[in-house]
């Protein structure tokens, strides 16, 4: 009888130990998976890049910020609903692209903006019919109604043409696959928006 009782006690003890091990394994698995997922996420950015990629990202961030500044003003001041809708679309599209390019520069160990901001952009990408970003904002700020809509469209067309020029330079000289892909997208998107703005100008 004593042997039977001992055997039962041992059997119960083994069962409890195995159950505890099973719970421990189940608890550890999700944590391990999460750690693996986090590690994969942190290494998503392709580190291979050259100076052209760095300059493209830095300059395009500043360029996009300028476009958003102008677009937000148009959302407030535009008389035409079509112009207001276009401005909302520009702002919504370019914000996430700024975040994307900022993440690249941080992963590459590069500065997230060129020296001097807008003033550091020593090429035609920011020139809008002879106006700098600050001059364009001051010009638009004093206008209203149809006059504002027309001038906003004309300046934003020139601004987009600068973005296309910058993106083409990246395609010609860049190395990073993600940056090259974004450059192609910018060309496609902004050329489509230029065509839309030219059509709006004819109908205002």
From TrEMBL:
Residue span, DUF305 domain: 53-201
Database matches in Pfam families: DUF305
Keyword Cell inner membrane: no
Keywords linked to the UniProt accession: Signal
Residues spanning the signal sequence: 1-22
Official protein name in the record: DUF305 domain-containing protein
Compositionally biased region (Low complexity): 27-45
Cited PANTHER family: SLL0788 PROTEIN
Region annotated Disordered, chain positions: 25-47, 120-143
InterPro entries, sorted: DUF305_CopM-like, Ferritin-like
């Amino acid at each position: 009888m004593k042997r039977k009782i001992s055997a039962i006690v041992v059997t119960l003890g083994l069962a409890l130990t195995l159950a505890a091990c099973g719970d421990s394994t189940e608890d550890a698995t999700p944590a391990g998976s999460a750690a693996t997922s986090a590690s994969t996420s942190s290494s998503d950015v392709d580190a291979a890049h050259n100076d052209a990629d760095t300059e493209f990202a830095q300059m395009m961030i500043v360029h996009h910020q300028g476009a958003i500044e102008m677009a937000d003003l148009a959302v407030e001041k535009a008389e035409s609903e079509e112009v207001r809708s276009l401005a909302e679309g520009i702002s919504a599209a370019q914000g996430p692209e700024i975040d994307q390019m900022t993440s690249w520069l941080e992963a590459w160990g590069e500065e997230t903006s060129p020296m001097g901001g807008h003033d550091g952009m020593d090429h035609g990408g920011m020139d809008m019919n002879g106006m700098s970003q600050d001059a364009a904002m001051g010009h638009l700020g004093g206008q209203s109604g149809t006059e504002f809509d027309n001038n906003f469209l004309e300046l934003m067309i020139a601004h987009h043409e600068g973005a296309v020029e910058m993106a083409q330079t990246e395609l010609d000289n860049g190395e990073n696959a993600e940056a090259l892909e974004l450059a192609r997208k910018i060309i496609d998107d902004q050329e489509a928006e230029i065509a839309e703005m030219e059509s709006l100008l004819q109908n205002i």
